[in-house]
Amino acid sequence: MKTTNLLLAFVFAFAHDSLFAACDKPGQKIMEEQNKVQSAKSEEESQEIVIIDSKTSKKQKRNLKRYMIKGTGDDSKSVLYFLSPANIKGAGLLSWKQKSEENQWLYVPELKKLQRIASGSKKNYFMGTDFTYADLDGESLKKNKYTCQQTIKCQKGKSKCYVIEAKPISEQEERNIGYSKRMLLVDTKDLITLKIIFYNLKGEKLKTAEYANWEKSGKLWRPNLAIMDRHTIQKTFIKVKKRELNKPIKDIVFTKRYLEKEMHIK
């Protein structure tokens, strides 16, 4: 009953004047197709981050650089690091997805070394934002089971969306990432994720991510604004100031040495 109520609450949030329809394909297949059609060989972004305390309205502003490169199959590597403010300049996160192994390392300038992020720490929030280490790892098709619940009208009736439940494949994975499930709103035409609602291990609504200001580059769609709302606590806004897709990026950018030798801030 509780799961049904949560699903209905999610659906009605987007479908005030809409009729529900059955999904035309399984959730796992939808997410696999999304991964196929919306993946770039490489990405380079300059981002501005604004963190707002929900109680005091106090703002923090940061600037960040992000790189990503795809390997064979589902393999990928990414790195992001802060350019400002001065007190966190140079702090960075390196992520590798290779076959069945996924690793993340945090570089702390004061310590001059990389610290590996343990699996059980992926639920922790990254550098004071509302994004966890698991969130920054992106969708992991191998570690989630996707079930399409409904097809509904969305974006004020301008398009149709799949309502997809994403559940970790095991209780251990649930504990690692801190979510019992996520509900995704995925556009049926372009296969872009417009919204994600996250639920904690008790099945309670924890936070909401929204992706907006979409821009098309070739055949690929990317949001220029991401908002993570940890309700009544804090919001994190990520605005993409500049983006390049499918451009060559040097392999050294995705190495441990690149951060350890502080080549990213020289």
Layout of secondary structure:
Elements: H1 2-12, H2 27-37, E1 42-53, E2 59-70, E3 76-84, E4 92-98, E5 101-108, E6 113-116, H3 133-136, E7 144-154, E8 159-168, H4 171-177, E9 181-187, E10 193-199, E11 205-217, E12 220-230, E13 234-245, H5 256-260
Antiparallel strand pairs: 1-2, 1-13, 2-3, 3-4, 4-5, 5-6, 7-8, 8-9, 9-10, 10-11, 11-12, 12-13
Mean pLDDT: 92
Write the H/E string, N to C.
HHEEEEEEHEEHEEEEEH
Report the top-level CATH class: Mainly Beta
| Content-based structural category | mainly beta
Helicity range: 10-25%
Rg to the nearest angstrom? 18 Å
Taken from the alpha-carbon principal axes, the silhouette is globular
- N-to-C span: 56 Å
User: What do we call the CATH homologous superfamily?
Assistant: Lipoprotein localisation LolA/LolB/LppX
Tally of distinct domains: 1
Unreliable segments of 5+ consecutive residues = none
**At CATH's second level, what is the architecture?**
Clam
Strand content: over 45%
User: What fold name stands as the CATH topology?
Assistant: outer membrane lipoprotein receptor (LolB), chain A
Tally of alpha and pi helices: 5
- Biggest sheet: strands, sense, closure? 13 strands, antiparallel
**How many extended strands?**
13
Side by side, the strands of the main sheet go 6-5-4-3-2-1-13-12-11-10-9-8-7
Question: Could you explain how this protein is built, in words?
Answer:
- With 266 residues, the protein is mainly β.
- The chain has a single domain (2-265), classed as outer membrane lipoprotein receptor (LolB), chain A, CATH 2.50.20.
- It has 5 helices and 13 strands.
- The chain has helices spanning 2-12, 27-37, 133-136, 171-177, 256-260; strands at 42-53, 59-70, 76-84, 92-98, 101-108, 113-116, 144-154, 159-168, 181-187, 193-199, 205-217, 220-230, 234-245.
- The protein has a 13-stranded antiparallel sheet, sandwiched between helices.
- Strand 9 (181-187) and strand 10 form a beta hairpin.
